[in-house]
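Lab notebook, bench 4. The sequencing result for the construct came back, and we need a structural model before the next group meeting so we can plan mutations. Quick request posted to the team channel:

Model the 3D structure of this chain.
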Amino acid sequence: MSLKNDKFPASAAFEAINASLQSSEADRKDAIKQGNAVFAFTLKNKAGETESWHIDLKEKGAVGAGPGTKPTVTLSLSDEDFGKLVAGQANAQRLFMSGKLKIKGDVMKATKMQPILQKAQTKAKL
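Done. Here's the predicted structure in token form:
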């Protein structure tokens, strides 16, 4: 099943993150150890539509469509800002402070996302 949604160009990053997690058992276990949470992302595109994905770093070490089961933290932002975040062109703290990134749940867990997003930077072509 493809995680990419053409209405959400930045969703290609979820494929890259999943590929990164599946490429190495050691990396996957390390990501689970570091993250120890289910991260849900709700993206909003320019047409005002929303879609959700999740990164399970609690048990599976995989990415899936939808918000997942009991997400530890949910990050809501625009598709454009998510693309910039993954590409390293935006700072999560600045997005949060300016109201462009909304976080529900364990805010401290949200800080654990940066290393995982950085893995996608090298693989995602956004």
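The two ends are 20 Å apart (CA to CA).
Will bring this to the meeting.
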